[in-house]
Specification:
Elements: E1 2-8, E2 15-21, E3 29-33, E4 48-50, E5 54-58, H1 60-70, H2 80-85
Antiparallel strand pairs: 1-2, 3-5, 4-5
Length: 90
Amino acid sequence: MSVTHKFSCRCGENTISLSFCDNMPAEVVDRVFCPHCDGNGHPHQEAWPFPGDWFVHFDLEVARIYAMAKLDIDPALVNPGFIMDRGFVR
């Protein structure tokens, strides 16, 4: 099952809809950056690239709590690649 949430980018010019699978909480997304955010002074160096020149910054503490409680996975293994490779956020 997946649930879709809409997020406004940091510069406020655009929104993106992201789908969350397997009960991954939407709070795992901390910030999103549209293609215009960098030009408006919002850097995305620590964010994960997303289709359409968007970038997503994850709250890894939320993701690690989820992995430990719901998936019985060592939270030390959780990083943005884990979230994306497993298809938890699309």
